[in-house]
Amino acid sequence: MADLEGRSKDLKDKVAGEGKEAYGKATGDKSKETEGKAQSVGADIKSKARNIGDEIKEGFEDVKEKFSKKDHK
């Protein structure tokens, strides 16, 4: 699993972005709404990239383990 600090920062950015977006909608501030939406989407992208990285690492470890078992036979 990717670092907990990075994941918590992604979550913080997503929540902050959603807050800015809601504030922008409530006040009619399109700039703040767009800024919030961009921050939230950016956090989603980072989170998904971390998940993909984790899956790649797990797949590599599985392959490494299978080759290691063959070497011991």
UniProtKB/TrEMBL annotation:
Pfam families: CsbD (PF05532)
Chain ranges of the CsbD-like domain: 9-58
Region (Disordered): 1-46
Bias-annotated ranges (Basic and acidic residues): 1-36
Top-level taxon of the source organism: Bacteria
Record family assignment: Belongs to the UPF0337 (CsbD) family.
Protein name: CsbD-like domain-containing protein
Species assigned in the record: Candidatus Enterococcus mangumiae
Classification of source organism: Bacteria, Bacillati, Bacillota, Bacilli, Lactobacillales
